[in-house]
Write a structure and sequence with these properties.
Main location: membrane
Helix content: 40-55%
Organism: Buddleja alternifolia
Keywords: Heme, Iron, Membrane, Metal-binding, Monooxygenase, Oxidoreductase, Transmembrane, Transmembrane helix
Order of helices and strands: HHHHHHEEEEHHHHEEEE
GO molecular function: heme binding; iron ion binding; monooxygenase activity; oxidoreductase activity, acting on paired donors, with incorporation or reduction of molecular oxygen
Strand content: 5-15%
Family: Belongs to the cytochrome P450 family.
Number of helices: 10
Bound molecules: protoporphyrin IX containing FE
CATH superfamily of the largest domain: Cytochrome P450
CATH topology of the largest domain: Cytochrome p450
CATH class of the largest domain: Mainly Alpha
């Protein structure tokens, strides 16, 4: 009941935002492309103009896309950042290394896109955090036609569960130190860290891989760069480690940190 109510409120909020965009487009005579919704509406309009209206998305479909992007993008990235902050508060040596890299790459300049792409240590840290605490811990698939999977032939309608977290924590795949935080595993990239096996896939894999994967990493790097250059942080004694899975893997009572201005 409550879920339906919230969904109703969310849909009417989004419908209002979409309506406003349509009014703005009619007034200005052109589509803005300054955010994802505008880009979506613009490409939808182009699609319908070129191929006919039945090839475009309905308003309800646009609303569903907005919801998907918001929920898929917001919670997962904030969880990644929370776990990264927790881990860096425990592993002070890596916090220092990450900060040194941020200063080395950006100096006194504000973080920029090119620099974020050059953050090697920070990227290794984020990969290792995603390995230990993948925001999505299982993926579900339902087979729609008979499929061969290794020595098995699976009929349609079979429900498959891919336990990402178990694979990320598998000692046979990652070695004896699987439970330890060791970003150096990724010093030569994901392919080397995994021996070219599909043993690291926090963003899933294949045709339905997370569409926001590069954006999420960029966002997390930007947030870390901004925080690291201004603050050092330690774990507060009030923190209790309770990873819990509610849609995504999250610290149940939050991450309690103590910040010091640099
Ligand atoms: C650390 C951050 C993120 C993680 C770990 C993550 C992980 C994933 C995973 C595992 C999937 C596939 C789920 C499945 O196949 O069952 C997925 C799908 C998706 N993600 Fe992300 N995601 C993140 C951030 C984002 C961001 C920032 C956006 C958007 C800006 C986004 C948008 C999407 C969308 C739209 C899908 C569905 C794609 C499709 O079905 O084709 N994600 N994500």
């Amino acid at each position: 009941m409550r879920l339906k109510e919230i969904n109703g409120q969310l849909c009417s909020l989004l419908r209002g935002i979409i309506k406003q965009r349509e009014i703005r487009t009619m007034e200005t005579g052109h589509f803005a492309d300054d955010d994802l919704l505008s880009v979506l509406l613009k490409s939808n309009h182009k699609q319908m103009q070129e191929n006919g209206s039945k090839f475009g998305m309905s308003i309800d479909e646009v609303i569903e896309e907005c919801k998907a992007f918001y929920f898929a993008g917001q919670e997962s990235t904030s969880n990644l950042l929370s776990w990264a902050m927790l881990i860096l508060s425990i592993h002070q040596t890596w916090q220092t290394r990450a900060r040194e890299e941020v200063f080395q790459v950006f100096g006194d300049d504000a973080p920029n896109f090119d620099g974020l792409n050059r953050l090697k240590i920070v990227t290794m840290i984020l990969y290792e955090v995603l390995r230990l605490y993948p925001p999505g811990i299982i993926f579900n698939r339902i087979i729609y036609k008979e499929t061969k999977l290794g020595k098995f032939t699976l009929p349609p309608e079979v429900h498959l569960i891919l336990p990402v977290i178990l694979i990320h924590h598998d000692q046979q795949l990652w070695g004896e130190d699987v439970k330890e935080f060791k970003p150096e595993r990724f010093s030569r990239g994901v392919a080397k860290a995994t021996n070219n096996q599909l043993s690291f896939f926090p963003f899933s894999s294949g045709p339905r891989i997370c569409i926001g994967n590069n954006f999420a990493l960029m966002e997390a790097k930007l947030a870390l760069a901004v925080i690291l250059r201004r603050f050092s942080f330690e774990l507060s004694p009030s923190y209790t480690h309770k990873p819990s899975f509610v849609v995504t893997l999250q610290p149940q009572d939050g991450v309690h940190l103590m910040f010091r201005k640099i």
